Amino acid sequence: MYSGPGFNELQVGERFENGMTLTETHIVMGARLFGDVNPLHANRRFASEPDAH
Fold this sequence. Notes:
The chain is built from 3 helices and no strands. It is mostly helical.
């Protein structure tokens, strides 16, 4: 989690950088949140099959 100043606390000329590591858990939770049940998007084994595309 970012612990530095927020973008609204910066002065002109200063920089704000933030990042995070996107994990498989994030992808799965996002798919569930948006109802994306397409196995091509959510099932690695299915998506790796030659006929899946």
